[in-house]
Amino acid sequence: MLPNIQILRAVAAYLLVFVHLKTLLPETSIATALHEKAYCGVDLFFVISGFIMVYTTSHRKISGSEFLFNRVLRIVPLYYLTTYLVVVIAFFFPVLLQSSSSDLYALLKSLAFIPFEKSPGRIYPAYYLGWTLNYEMFFYLIFALSLAVRYEMRVALCATVMAALVLLGPLIRPADDVILYFYSQSIMLDFALGMILGAFREQISAVMRHMSLLPWLALSLGLGLLVALSYLPVAPSAYAPPTNTLLTFGIPAALILVAAIGFEDAKTRGQPWELLQEIGNASYSIYLTHFFVIGVLSAFASRADLSPAPRTLLALMAILLTAIVGIGVYRFFERPVMAILVRLNMRTKPAPRT
What we know:
Blueprint: H1 3-20, H2 29-37, H3 40-57, H4 64-92, H5 104-111, E1 117-119, E2 122-123, H6 131-146, H7 151-168, H8 178-182, H9 189-199, H10 201-210, H11 213-230, H12 246-262, H13 273-281, H14 283-304, H15 308-348
Antiparallel strand pairs: 1-2
Helix pairs in contact: 1-2, 1-3, 1-13, 1-14, 3-6, 3-9, 3-12, 4-6, 4-14, 4-15, 7-9, 9-12, 11-12, 14-15
């Protein structure tokens, strides 16, 4: 994996950590801004995801079924574990997770990555953070189907399908079909932007290698647009979460990814780059576990009735603890479980004929 892309994944993960630090931080304009604007981490993750899928499949032949199997190995074990943990907590300690329930029907839909209206006006799975994985798995399905066509047509086909869904969105009444509504939001085009950048990565890198100011220009423009557009109201959504974020967050995220591609030849060795890359490697684990870390610290802060200063200190501790827990889960659960499942799959494959 490209080092700069891994660093960008670390940034995306911590933007979402900052979103949920609001429960720890004192009520200030800074805390509110972090909560509202750091949601751009979702769009950044989606743009990166589109890029990575194209980048990792561009120079090798892979079937749609093999691709989907690999993505399931990557996504499912930790997501199922955290989902079961949330359901257990909701069953035994419902006061801790008032927005979650131990309902079996909701659990089954969550495990199947099927969007549903968890409560009036809210499309979330049993584990709140899993809504982004519903989008990821749907994108993987579209991409897997595209693997049946030539590489040159793949990106265009996926982008066309997603654009058609988004164009269909305004024609869908939310009450008619929650699933179709969910997958016809503009946030879907974040994946398309990432795929386009993945398809033209070599050309982008070559141009920027000869014009060293271009990566800085792309980064400045991306950050500038992110700041400027984030103050515009996000287009209203009939359901939470807000998913009409292509213009406010998606396009700036794509420009930041362009900068990361341009900085590809920059020195990224030694500290702190290696630490950021390790956080990027563990970004999925950090994403799914940070909510528990912050939840425990928030419960302690509330029970102890802490003043603003200790709460701020706890929030700073949470930044460190989420990295420690996430990297630990990545090294001692995510990677080992994936390795075991890959070995089991290899054993069940029929031996080649001689």
